[in-house]
Specification:
The complex is a heterodimer. Chain A is mainly alpha-helical. Chain A has helices at 21-27, 31-59, 72-106, 115-137, 151-181, 194-224, 238-242, 250-255, 257-270, 277-290, 311-337, 339-342, 348-370, 382-410, 416-442, 463-492, 530-533. The chains are: A mainly alpha, B mainly alpha.
Chain lengths: 534, 193
Amino acid sequence: MTITETAPDTEPEASQPAPSPLESLATGTDHRFLGRAWAAAGGLFLLLCLVVGVLVGIERIGLDDAEVFGSGDEVFQFWSLYRVGLVLLAVVPLLLGLATAVTPLQVGASSIVFPRAAALAFWTWLVGAVVTVVGFLADGGLGTPDAGSQRQAVALTLVGLLLVIAGISLATVCVVTTVVAARTSGMTLRRIPYFSWSMLVAGTLWLTTLPVLAANAVLAYVDLRGRPAVHFGAEDHIWDQLSWAFTHPQVYALALPLIGIAFDVVGVAAGVRQRNHDVVLVAIGLFGAVGFGAYAQSFFDTPGTPVMEEALYVVDAFVAVPLVLVLLGGLADSLRRGAANLGGRPPAPMVLAVFSVLLLLAGTLIGAVRSVASLDLLERSTTGAQMTFTIGAALVGVIAGMLWWGDRIVGRSAPQGLGLLAGLAVTVGVVLSGLPDTISGFLGMNDFPGADEVTAGSPGSGVGVLNAVAAVGALALLAGALAGALVAWRRLGGPEAPADPWGGHTLEWATSPVVVSSERPLLDATVPTEEEVD
Amino acid sequence: MADPVVPAPPVRPSTLMVGTTLATGAVVMFFAGLFAVYFSMRADTMAWGSEWFPEGAIQLSPGGMNMATLVVATVTMAWAVHSVAGNDRIHAYLALALTAVMGIAMINQTVFYFNDIGLPIDYSTSTTLLFTIVGAHLVMVGIGVLWVGLLLLRALGGQDTRRHRDLVSAAALYWYATVAVYAVMWVGIYIGK
């Protein structure tokens, strides 16, 4: 027997009350909405962290006393907030925002996989980020050298950090699963755009390293709560256990997606097909492998064999440089071949994308020099300089990506000139912050300078001037970020964006469903292959 | 003009399986981090000739019982997957229920043993690590039990079938990882001490 069911009568749609803005905000699962949410929240935390960075920079101008903050412990709390915040509350969330919005479009998926989990990830991260900041501001943070913080607030910070890691990890699962299992017909892994590929590699690394950071945080939390800490939760030990996540080589894994952004932007802007496509994919993968940093936990060093002097750590540092050079060579080749298409005014995202890879190269160079044990730079300010260059490179890459894909994510155009200015200010800020710290390391300044000369390592003369220059760099970073926020604000009120403003032919620009049948989707529609030209 | 050739629909892995694999991998890395700290500090302590755990503090039998329980639970979980794949609902009910019971039994045994162990958590770094690892694993088992319980309810509602078995397969993957993590604990902590 066949039963034919008729649809029940339903109320007309117009009579359904429209969801309130708050309701939409809390229940939104559209990947572009979530991408915007990550970007907005990450941008706000970026501004907060950069303000902290400026204060710490001013504090460092005079090393013999605490001038901005009340004590060395307070300096440490804000110094560590700047590092943790810049990475886990700002740059990584901004990259995740781009990835959440763009990768489903790039691989031809209708949406991000597990959209409710993706929304849960964002809200978990946001709650964790707020708790983390509150923990720091409530005299907590990740311990202090002289045990001058509130234990309950330290515990609160650790809980916040765990929530942040959980949120980032869950969002990463959604992005990576989308790339692996939701690609459209014909979109093999070799054909996916570079940004999606770099997110696949980076996401895999984040999922294998951030849980290790969570394990460190759980150990500290368990030891800290309710009784005198035995070892892991001692206030002067917590940061030492967690700091590996904010230095070489882990920072490479965290910044990796910038490479994908650069290749996607440069390829389309220059109007040429990227040569040696497979070599680029392999180089991105290898750079990711180099960035696996969970092993480099100097806190658990076996006496006599410091991990930072072991072969793997040093080789990692030196292999990263030629890998970035190979990638830079690939970009330079595309730019050379596409010079005629670029004209006199190359697009702002392309300029910033190239700068971001150059900054990454600087970061890897400093990392290589730092790892030469005889130079005695491992505990010096060179460590912070390397983080500044590498994470700063990712930030410039994010601005390039936002300018590039923002039209597609928001649907409105942004002032590109102001965006270029923002990116250039951040680039200048990174150089002005990182370069003096590199030199100060050679002069003997410690990574954490504290609030007295001894804690600072009794560095040589001239460090005060270098620190003043670094403070100016921190100000430039903040100015660049503010300009970036202004670009985002003006985009919201900007004119409606065209469907494909850059003439790009990767799937994120398609306005109707696409079946990939060619060798590679990039520019297939307009650019002949070299064989066809011949 | 000939119609354009439309390629066959893509053969992709199940999103649920890929997502579960990634999430389970992350959980395994969490434990890998804890184990790395445990074994590294244990090796350093013993290299100095110091005591890691007090003599006789960690007994083999409770750990061995838990291992046996989880091995049985692995078999019952595989049985559940096989039953759902074969649309054998009765066996699926039995297998899922037994798996959940084994998980609860393991939690019960562990909690009993650690109430009885006589080692405070702040006795030394070794006990802090021990309680953290065991506690985290209990949470992992607890999540597995809740997941299996949910599957049992779905199976009773007729929702876990041959055509819709991804959730059972994903739960099985997670469960096997739970047992594998415990196997490392059993060898490294209960046997190796």
